[in-house]
Amino acid sequence: MSSKRFENKTIIVTGAAGGIGEAYARALAAEGANVVVADLADEKGKQVAADIGGLYVSTDVADEESAKALAAATVDAYGSIDGLVNNAAIYGGMKLDFLITVPWDYYKKFMSVNLDGALNVTRAVYPHMTNGGGAIVNQSSTAAWLYSGFYGLAKVGVNGLTQQLATELGGQNIRVNAIAPGPIDTEATRTTTPKEMVADIVNRLPLKRFGTPEDLVGMCLFLLSEEAGWITGQIFNVDGGQVIRS
Ligand SMILES: NC(=O)c1ccc[n+]([C@@H]2O[C@H](COP(=O)([O-])OP(=O)(O)OC[C@H]3O[C@@H](n4cnc5c(N)ncnc54)[C@H](O)[C@@H]3O)[C@@H](O)[C@H]2O)c1
């Protein structure tokens, strides 16, 4: 097996200005991919793209025109698109509230990014997957199976979206899978989830440590690669055993 699995492949990673998305972008570039960093955080996003020799495109995943402009800029730079990682979400600094009390405006904005954002970018990108197919990886969370209010509800939606899109796009050899990470040590988690809560969650994991973005990289790159050529519509937990489904 070649050590550079993504030579001549073009892959967009949304939300890659920091945290998990940045780790994916760096790992993909190290394996030879043309990486497009798509984020709202322009300064950090440009820095990541510059570090890895990729392209930065300022993008709001919730906006249809912005997603189309992302696809167009990618095709202009690299000709076509082979992979998409729908990782962007409102997570770092998110409001902590309940489904029954969260203000509707906040809820609707949140869902437009955390659920519809993945569909919006997929709709803009898939017509350009013209190299005999493509691979899409959606970022879910174990929150989909645990109580976590509207954050978890959006991830339930991401899981459903993964299954439905896999069916719609399979005929074009476009595979759609999701990764459901457990608690991951990113700046966003450190600033959003109270320390005691994280310590309690980690203590209850079968593998008793906080996950790192690097723990997720292997699964993401596998799902984007040809080794996963007959895998679609699946949600893979990378979570230290946090959720064991029967
Ligand atoms: N950190 C964890 O414990 C954990 C666990 C499970 C799942 N996840 C998921 O992993 C992903 C990344 O998490 P992270 O910890 O790196 O958090 P993060 O907040 O650092 O990453 C989210 C990124 O998305 C970007 N973003 C937000 N809204 C956007 C928009 N409208 N358009 C474009 N970009 C936008 C942000 O600028 C940021 O760079 C998220 O989908 C999150 O829900 C995280």
UniProtKB/TrEMBL annotation:
Annotated GO biological processes are: fatty acid elongation
Under what name is this protein listed? Short-chain dehydrogenase
> Matching SUPFAM superfamilies, A to Z?
NAD(P)-binding Rossmann-fold domains
Short name of one Pfam family for this protein?
Answer: adh_short_C2
Give all residue intervals belonging to the Ketoreductase domain: 9-182
The GO molecular function terms of this record are: oxidoreductase activity, acting on the CH-OH group of donors, NAD or NADP as acceptor
Q: Which UniProt keywords apply?
A: Oxidoreductase
In the record, the note on similarity to other proteins reads:
Belongs to the short-chain dehydrogenases/reductases (SDR) family.
Top-level taxon of origin: Bacteria
Q: Which PANTHER family match?
A: 3-OXOACYL-[ACYL-CARRIER-PROTEIN] REDUCTASE, CHLOROPLASTIC (PTHR42760:SF40), SHORT-CHAIN DEHYDROGENASES/REDUCTASES FAMILY MEMBER (PTHR42760)
